[in-house]
Fold this sequence. Notes:
By secondary structure, this protein is mainly beta. The protein has strands at 3-7, 10-12, 18-25, 34-39, 46-51, 57-59, 67-72, 77-82, 91-98, 102-104, 108-112. Strands 2, 4, 5, 6, 9, 10 and 11 form a seven-stranded mixed sheet that branches. The chain starts with a strand and ends with a strand.
Amino acid sequence: QVQLVESGGGLVQPGGSLRLSCAASGFPFGTYAMSWYRQNPGREREQVAAIGAGAGTYYADSVKGRFTISRDNAKNMVYLQMNSLKPEDTAVYYCNLQADISYWGQGTQVTVAS
C-alpha cells in the first residue's frame, strides 16, 4: 500500500535552513506529482510546493524564492529545502500524493523561533 514517511523537521532560528525528506513507497513514484503541505492548529492545510512527474514545480507565493522542492525518482524520495526560514513558517509539514484518493504522511514539525 501507499506509504509516505516524512523526516527532517525540527527547531531552527529565524533565517536558518532545514531540509525535509519524504520517503515514498507502494506506487509507481516516477509517474506521479508530489506535494508538500503545511498546517497549523485551527487552520486549513496549505499547499506549499509541488513537483510534477516531469519535474515542473509550483510554489505558494509565501515561500517562493526561499523553498525548493526536488525529487529523486531512483530513490523514491521528494525533498523540500527551506531557506531563510521565518516564524510564520512554523507548522506541521506533510508529504502528499494525489492519486485515486489523497494520501498523506504522518507529518513532521517545523518550528522557527529564537
